[in-house]
Amino acid sequence: MRVPLSWLREYVDVPTDASPEDVLEALVRVGFEEEDVHRFEVTGPVVVGEVLSFEAEPQSNGKTIRWCQVQVAPEGETAADGGPAVHGIVCGAGNFFVGDKVVVTLPGAVLPGPFPIAARKTYGHVSDGMIASAKELGLGDEHAGILRLSELGIDAPVGTDAIALLGLDDVAVEINVTPDRGYALSMRGVAREYSHSTGAAFRDPGLRPWGEVQPGSGFAVAVADDAPIRGRVGASEFVVRVVRGVDATAPTPPWMIARLTLAGIRSLGILIDITNYVMLELGNPIHGYDLDALSGGITVRRARAGEHLTTLDGKDRTLDAEDLLITDDSGPIGLAGVMGGGPTEMSDATRNVLVEAAIFDTVSIARTARRHKLPSEASRRFERGVDPLIPFVAAQRVVDLMVELAGGAADSLGGALFTTYQRPAIALPSMFVSGVIGVDYEPARVRGALEMIGCVVDDSSAGWDVTPPSWRPDLTDKWTLAEEVARIEGYDQIPSVLPTPPSGRGLTEAQQGRRRVANALAAAGFVETPSFPFTTEALNDLHGSVSGEHLPSIKLANPLDGQAPFLRRSLIPALLQAAHRNLSRGLTDLAIFETGSVFLPEPGVEYGTSFVPPLAERPSDEVLAELNASIPPQPRHVAVLLTGNLAPKQPGRAAEPADLGAALDAVRVIAASAGVSVDVAQGARAALHPGRTGVLSVGGPDQTRVEVGYVGELLPAVAEASDLPGRVIVAELNLDLLLSLVSSRVVAASLSGFPAATQDVSLVVDADVPAAEVRAALEFGAGELLESARLVDDYRGTGVPEGSKSLTFALRFRAPDRTLTAAEATDAKLAGVAVAAERFSATIRD
Prior knowledge:
The protein is of the alpha+beta class. A hairpin with an 8-residue loop joins β33 and β34.
């Protein structure tokens, strides 16, 4: 909401020396957000001048200019720019005459743009200033010719300061009005809030005696809402007044144009300007009809099937059965509370006006505006709630201004429909506000704050019965009343006290585990690159499956990007996009990672639901179960990508390129921070090199292996499709699954003070047997004495049968209570070999 200060001062005593920043500070104290300060970007000297003479001079380019002699100061006096009283000025407009009073910008002035004015030679003359148009002064879009003051009804002496004369010295402050405080979308509401903040005297423009605002009679008005929304009739109040004999071509006064412009509304002619002015002043949107274009009376009803309406913006709109309409005998003439219709709009030919002021249902107006994508100043106010006691005052205010400024005459013809307004009192216990806010407010302060905002406060046995004012539909219960007390008393009066958290709270184990993994990767030199979870079906098939087969994916009904409407099954596509973006900007050495959810719908299961749970109550367990069943599994994954060099080339040291070993190191970092040990076995993925792909698994307590992810090098064709040169190494793990395999209790092993016994063993197994499974068999068979088993050699050659391989493991044995003998270590080793022989037919290599 933009608030011109000259307008604000009409309703509240703002000090004359108050700056816009002072006004904003006062409004911020009562809960508004500061947005901006708006000014006319015009600085003087800008004065009233009189055209003494001009000579029309045709030019070679086909244009005719006027060489004018303009008096800009009284005879015998110096002009505001220090020059003579008469200036020679070149002007290209032709809509003025000798004797016209015009606005002259003298050398030294600055117009919006900024456009500085200086004496300059043009068309063979030295033009000592410029005769300005309304657009050049920032007063509107009209640029057909220069601004003639007689057209505005102004006859000021030559040399008068035109900036003050036209209201160009005014300034507006802009505040952000939250949706629950629609009353502040008016000068009346903002002035009241300024009064609450500063204690300045407030004069309510909405208070007028009933005898001044009662409507006329004889004009048929009806509300026929046979399909109310939520049981609420579309129009609860509808007032019409008639003004006859208006001059629609009469000029809008400069002060009104200036205020409307600062408020962000264009001047569109005196009749429309008056309705907009009253809307900003009182907060009640007003619509004016050309009375002579109406057929019969007015009926407010819902739209019927097949009906159309051409709105004021010239668009033909197909109406919905929920749309609330203004109609006459000819059919729809307006979208109620949103925008009027073209056939009955006011124009320069209008002579008789029907003024409408109404109260429409907030939900109905909001839905109509969104359905037709037609937000307007009117709908913005109606959907937030308009004071139900203001339409009679607003209609009379429009009538008064049309009589005063447009030469009309108020007619006795009119009509009104309204319902009795009554709001139930809200019970407010005496200590409730202090208990909620945490400040020990005295009862007199609570009562005073509520009465200040317009509430009627009556004593009750438990505290007070509070009746909110008509302009505050947001005050509905004792909690909103408590908030108002805190706002009026000052949020700065509420102490800042850090609460003591109860024991047992904090991050869950899963959250702690995810944070450890992310921190460990960052410490290892990886950079986190969060991304959106949207991708294509082709990328889901390529990276989200083992062999590239088509698996079900979740498609969004309303995607942000129509090219990527699916939810991801893998984190790798997003890392490839991030890598491409960085490489295109010259960052060739990358080590990046991401943790996030992937979406893995189960085949044959339909996800999504049209069921909308009730919003006014907590969903039941059955409702929550239904909602959860509509969501696919969403495990959290962690993925890494490396490309380029891990270490750059340096004097005496070659560059260290990223390879599969570096990715395995990253996997080990993830596993260590999660608290597990990961094994790698040969594997295959659709997007990865067949000979450079590993399957990652974790051993369970029963010696079963649980697959948790994969690591490998991208196929060159896949990397090229992502515009990534060179090798690209990736790894992806199911982080939720990884963390679930960790025991909830981690017990630190005690350190033995006894020496270790080390032995090696070489086992011959089939070439396709994973080394990790052979090691697991050794560990299982050797028992507790085995401290570690490490693969040190994989030999395939002379001395080993074809189709087999020799795996050499370094074994370390240690007892916690004694020094092991060589025989004990050998027995443990052979026990492990026996298990490997049983599982894989392993033999000791001679």
